[in-house]
Write a structure and sequence with these properties.
The structure holds two protein chains of two kinds.
Chain A lengths: L2 E12 L6 E12 L3 E6 L5 H8 L7 E6 L2 E2 L5 H7 E4 L11 H6 L14 H13 L15 H14 L4 E4 L8 H18 L2 E5 L3 H7 L2 E5 L4 E4 L1 H6 L12 E4 L4 E4 L2
Parallel strand pairs in A: 3-8, 3-9, 6-7, 7-8
Antiparallel strand pairs in A: 1-2, 1-4, 4-5, 9-10, 11-12
Helix pairs in contact in A: 4-5
Chain B lengths: L3 H24 L7 H8 L7 H35 L12 H14 L5 H7 L2 H25 L3 H24 L3 H11 L8 H19 L2 H7 L3 H6 L4 H23 L5 H13 L4 H23 L10 H18 L8
The chains are: A alpha/beta, B mainly alpha.
InterPro entries (chain A): AAA+_ATPase, ABC_transporter-like_ATP-bd, P-loop_NTPase, Siderophore_ABC-ATPase
GO biological process, one term (chain A): iron ion transport
Membrane topology (chain A): Peripheral membrane protein
C-alpha cells in the first residue's frame, strides 16, 4: 500500500536557547492509504506535540517528515492545505455559519480570491454531506445541532478539503459511548470508501483496539507504531502508564485497576 | 448560497433607501430645498434659486458625501475588527487610533496655554486636522509594530484598549489644567463634525478610505476562514499573520483618516455590523461586506439628517446622535443575544 506520511528518525519538542526540550526522539512512522490509525498515550506524554509536528504547526527538532513524498516544511501553505486537513477539539468562535457554509469553507484551498464555489466545489461539499449522512442538517446553523452532529460536520469539512491525510485531535472526548462508537465507525468507513489515511488521538484504548487498523503508542521510553494484535502480544500497553496499580488485561482488551 | 433571493431583495431595498436618504439629507436643513431642485442641481441642470444651488454645492453635498464615506469606512472597519478579534464588541476604536488622535488634539488645544506659540499655529481648523492625523499615524505605526511582534491576536486587542485608557487619562489630566475656553474647543472637536470640509479635504478622505476598502476586499476570503478560528484558518492555507497585518493596515488607514477629518465618531463601527448581521442572518463576508457598506452609509446619512433638524438653524453634534442611536442598539442586541447570533 502507498505511504501517505512517513517520519524518519524524528525528534519532537520545543527548541530552547539554553537547552533543547526534546519530548520524544527516534520516532519512525509510516502511515498508509486507507488506514485508520489511533494515537495513544498518557496525558502530558507529548501526543499534542507529535500531532502539531506532523501537521506542520511546529518544526521537528531533528528528522524529516514526508507528506505525499514531499518534505513537510517545503510545502507552501496552500499546497499543505490540499494535502492535510485537521479536526480540532477547540470550540468554534460564535458565528452564523450554516452546516453547509461551514463544510464549504473546506474548499478554500481550491477556490478563487473571493472564495466563490464552482460546480466542482459544490459536488465535493455534497459528497462530504452524503458520506457523513448530514444532508438533512445542511441548512441548520452549526450551533443548533448536537455535539455529536457537530463533530461529524467538522469531519465533513475535512472531507470537503479533499486531502489524502486527515488528523483528528481527540475527536471522541465529549461524546458518550454510543456516539464514540458511531464516530469511529464513520472514520473506519471513510478510510475504506475514500482510501484516505486518518490519524486520531484518543484515550479510549478499548475502542481503538477494536476499530483501528494500527495504533501509535507513546510511552516515556519510545514511540511504537504497530497493529493492535502485535502491540498486545508484545505487551506494549503494560508500559503505557508508569503506575503498577494499572495493568493491561489482554483478554479483556482494556485496563484493570488493582485495589 | 441558499438565501440568494432574500439577499437580493434586501440589497435592492438598501440601495434604494441609500439614494433616497442621500437626496433627503441634502434637501433638509435650516433651509428646506425641494427634492426636485436638489435632483436638478445634482445632475447639473441648476436649481431655480441660485442661493439653493450655492448651499447644495458648497455645504450640503460635501457634508452628505462625508457622511457616506464616514459611515462606510467606520462600519467596514468595525466588521473587520469583530471578525479578526472574534469579539462582538470590537470596533474601529479598539486599535486605539481615535484615542491617539484625541490625545494629539488635546495636547494641541489644551496644552496651548503652556506653549502659546505652538498653540496659535495648531488652533486653526487645519492645524487640528494635522494634529489628529499625526496622532492616528503615530498609533497606527505602534499598532503595526505590535501586530508584527505579538503572536497572540487577543494581546493586540488588549494593547489597543490599554492605549485608549492611557490617552484618556492624559486628556483628563490636561483638561484639569486648562481654562473653560480651551475645554469647550476640545469638547467641540470630540463631538465630531461632518461639515466644514473643503472639496480638497473630501477628496483626500475619499481617496484614503477607498484605498483602505480596496485592501479590505482582498481579505474577504480569509475573513470567512477566520470564522472557524485561527488554527482552522491556518489549516486552510491562510497566511494568518500576513492577513492579520493587512486587516489592521486597512482599518488603520480608514479610521485614522476619518478621525483626523471628522473627529472621533463612536458607535457606528460597532452597531452597524450587528444590525447587518441581524438583517441578513449570515456570517459570509461575501454578503456582509457589501451589506455593511450600504447600511453604514445609509445609517450615517440618517444620523446626519437628524442633527440638522428640518426648519431649525440649530445643529446637534454628530457624535451625540450616533451615540444616542447606537448605544440603545448595542444594549438591545445584548438583551436579545442568542447563541451564535452575536458574532
Amino acid at each position: 500500500m502507498e505511504t501517505v506520511l512517513a517520519a524518519n528518525n524524528l525528534s519532537i519538542g520545543y527548541p530552547d536557547k539554553k537547552q533543547e526540550a526534546v519530548i520524544a526522539h527516534d520516532i519512525n512512522l509510516n502511515l498508509k492509504k486507507g488506514a485508520l490509525i489511533a494515537l495513544i498515550g498518557a496525558n502530558g506524554i507529548g501526543k499534542s506535540t507529535l500531532l502539531r509536528t506532523l501537521t506542520g504547526i511546529q518544526p521537528p527538532i531533528k528528522g524529516i517528515i514526508q507528506l505525499n513524498g514531499i518534505n513537510l516544511t517545503q510545502h507552501n501553505p496552500k499546497e499543505l492545505a490540499q494535502n492535510l486537513s485537521v479536526v480540532l477539539t477547540e470550540k468554534l468562535p460564535p458565528s452564523n455559519l450554516t452546516v453547509y457554509e461551514l463544510i464549504a469553507l473546506g474548499r478554500q484551498p481550491y477556490t478563487n480570491w473571493l472564495g466563490s464555489l464552482t460546480e466542482e466545489d459544490k459536488l465535493q461539499v455534497s459528497r462530504a454531506l452524503q458520506l457523513t449522512q448530514l444532508e438533512h442538517l445542511a441548512n441548520k446553523k452549526y450551533y443548533e445541532i448536537s455535539d455529536g452532529q457537530l463533530q461529524r460536520v467538522l469531519i465533513a469539512r475535512a472531507l470537503a478539503q479533499d486531502t489524502p491525510f486527515i488528523v483528528l485531535d481527540e475527536p471522541t472526548t465529549h461524546l458518550d459511548l454510543l456516539h464514540k462508537v458511531s464516530l469511529l465507525r464513520l472514520l473506519k468507513k471513510l478510510t475504506q470508501e475514500t482510501d484516505k489515511c486518518i490519524l486520531y488521538s484518543t484515550h479510549d484504548l478499548d475502542l481503538a483496539l477494536q476499530l483501528s487498523s494500527e495504533i501509535i503508542v507513546m510511552t516515556q521510553q519510545e514511540v511504537i507504531q504497530d497493529s493492535p494484535a502485535n502491540l498486545i502480544s508484545n505487551k506494549v500497553f503494560d508500559r503505557l502508564f508508569n503506575d503498577d496499580s494499572i495493568t493491561f488485561d489482554a483478554e479483556k482488551g482494556g485496563f484493570t485497576v488493582k485495589e | 448560497m441558499l438565501y440568494t433571493k432574500r439577499y437580493t431583495l434586501i440589497f435592492i431595498l438598501l440601495g434604494i433607501s441609500l439614494v433616497a436618504l442621500f437626496l433627503v439629507n441634502i434637501s433638509l436643513g435650516s433651509v428646506s430645498i425641494p427634492l426636485k431642485e436638489v435632483f436638478n442641481s445634482l445632475i447639473g441642470k441648476g436649481a431655480s434659486k441660485s442661493a439653493w444651488e450655492y448651499i447644495i454645492i458648497n455645504y450640503r453635498l460635501p457634508k452628505a458625501l462625508t457622511a457616506i464615506i464616514v459611515g462606510i469606512g467606520l462600519s467596514i472597519s468595525g466588521l473587520l475588527m469583530q471578525t479578526l478579534f472574534r469579539n462582538p464588541l470590537a470596533g474601529p476604536s479598539v486599535l486605539g487610533l481615535s484615542s491617539g488622535a484625541s490625545l494629539m488634539v488635546a495636547i494641541v488645544i489644551l496644552g496651548a496655554g503652556i506653549v502659546p506659540a505652538v498653540g496659535t499655529f495648531f488652533s486653526s481648523s487645519y492645524g487640528l486636522v494635522l494634529a489628529s492625523t499625526f496622532g492616528s499615524l503615530l498609533v497606527l505605526l505602534a499598532v503595526l509594530l505590535v501586530a508584527q511582534r505579538l503572536k497572540d491576536t487577543m494581546a493586540i486587542l488588549i494593547v489597543g484598549l490599554m492605549f485608549g485608557s492611557f490617552a484618556g487619562a492624559i486628556v483628563g489630566v490636561l483638561s484639569y489644567f486648562s481654562n473653560a475656553e480651551q475645554l469647550q474647543k476640545y469638547t467641540f472637536w470630540a463631538l465630531g463634525s461632518l461639515g466644514n470640509l473643503s472639496w480638497e479635504n473630501i477628496s483626500i478622505l475619499w481617496g484614503a478610505s477607498l484605498l483602505g476598502l480596496a485592501i479590505a476586499v482582498t481579505c474577504i476570503k480569509p475573513l470567512n476562514a477566520m470564522l472557524l478560528g485561527e488554527r482552522y484558518a491556518k489549516s486552510l492555507g491562510i497566511n494568518f499573520s500576513q492577513t492579520r497585518f493587512i486587516i489592521i493596515l486597512a482599518t488603520s488607514i480608514i479610521t485614522g483618516c476619518i478621525t483626523a477629518f471628522t473627529g472621533p465618531i463612536s458607535f457606528i463601527g460597532i452597531a452597524v455590523p450587528h444590525i447587518v448581521k441581524l438583517l441578513f442572518k449570515t456570517s459570509s463576508h461575501l454578503v456582509l461586506f457589501w451589506a455593511t457598506l450600504l447600511a453604514g452609509a445609509a445609517i450615517m446619512l440618517i444620523c446626519d439628517t437628524v442633527t440638522q433638524w428640518p426648519g431649525s438653524s440649530f445643529v446637534l453634534p454628530i457624535n451625540g446622535i450616533t451615540s444616542i442611536i447606537g448605544a440603545p442598539i448595542v444594549i438591545w442586541l445584548l438583551f436579545r443575544k442568542k447563541k451564535g447570533v452575536f458574532s
